[in-house]
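WARN no homologs supplied; continuing
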Amino acid sequence: MSSPLLQVSGLTVRFGDQEVVKGIDFSIAPGEKLALVGESGSGKTVTALGLLGLVQGARVGGQALLQGNEGGSPQDLLALSERELRGLRGSEIAMIFQEPMTALNPLFTVGEQIAEVVQLKQGLTRPQAWEAAVAALAETGIPEPAHRAQSYPHQLSGGQRQRAMIAMALACQPRLLLADEPTTALDVSLRGQILELLGQLQRKNGMAVLLITHDLNLVRRFADRVAVMERGQLVEHGRVEQVFAHPQHAYTKQLLASRPQRDLQEPAAAPAWVQANGVRVIYRTSRPGIKGWFKSGSFAAVEGASLAISPGRTLGVIGESGSGKSTLALALLGLQAFEGEIRFDGQAWGQSSAANKALRRQVQVVFQDPFSSLSPRMTLEEIVGEGLRVHHRALDAYERREKVVQALMEVGLTEEQYPGLLQRYPHEFSGGQRQRIAIARALVVEPKLLVLDEPTSALDVTVQKQVLSLLQRLQRERGLSYLLITHDVHVIEAMAHEVMVMKDGLVVERGPVLRVLEAPEHPYTRMLVQSVQ
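OK structure emitted
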């Protein structure tokens, strides 16, 4: 085996007196793909940023020897000045950040941002740098690269923004690429495309890749070796097939066992409580040119969707971004104008404000990101009890508090575990705990239907399993109906009784979840299932 491209020894990262990376050792050979795996807070991202001197306010110690280029002597990254590191960033070591929308500058086109890197690192003229930027975009397979180079980040889709980030990182052909959760924000099919693209470019350029992720399926498909981090320490490393087949450390075993488990009961047959027929959602769009002055265009986000959900059952709606699944959920919640018919136990939206208010108590929602869906200025008692003030106005303060405490207890949050629980704020809790608070807020008004909009996509795998187990238990105990919106096939398999597959606003396949996933009939469904195998 060739000598390491990067040899890290005793790497430590400290913020004040707190050591978040605790003397870890690892190496990457030229052309090798190493995955650094762990949950949020394990220290994996700080490790990568620390190598490039990008962690503000931190003290980084240890040694990180980068092999010299063309036979030169190795350099210790941790001993270099900021000016010397700046010379290596982008040319020798590049990084792809997790969220391209925040990593890209919204004030410049993606072509200008890529050209800036090339011009700075390779000394090209502006026309030459622009030509190189378009070529870099073309290499990532982005359609119409010359046109897309003139687009601003917000004008690109999530997959196109990620391809632009990759083009920027690889424009100067670095020897080492640090990829921090490069596919987390993407749909399953886009994840596969980006993964395949990275593999092709890595093989073409002989580049080494340090992949930072908590997606074990991604590691299995992409990496040569894997290193597992827990609380700032490397607890296990080795060949991917060896670690996955025979994990040695308890934490590794826990991660590998974190795939959601199906634990559903089949409720007794009952009439559907939720029924929708021919739901159609139209968005108005502007038309180009003079025609747009006189008449707007239209776009069908949902076209003729029908569904039925009985008490105690879960309907999973799966599809990629733009498929129309979240728009359908908004229509069911009465938050989006629609054509067609939606009824809850025979009652439809829009009959009167009083009727709508009563219906809203029966239909509640749990959003994707618990941090942004919970007010940072309200205590837990105020957040969870807000619905009681609206829907149970006869309750006094003592009775409201009792119901809030009971709802929090149902989701596993008690005063014994968290002293002063009711007076705490959302930022004082972890992501999984915040999602439990969001579930308690929905449960406290005793609904019959919960709309779950990607309820676990922002969570680590072990926390995701805990939240899904909680939702399964609550459904068994309360007889709740769920409408589960997700792009995760494993979550659908674990949680749903029936599944509905949406693509471009249309329902392309539906049926019992195990039948659809085991023998998908539509090519799009087959693609979704194969993307996680």
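The chain has three domains: 1-92+175-257, 100-173, 274-530.
OK
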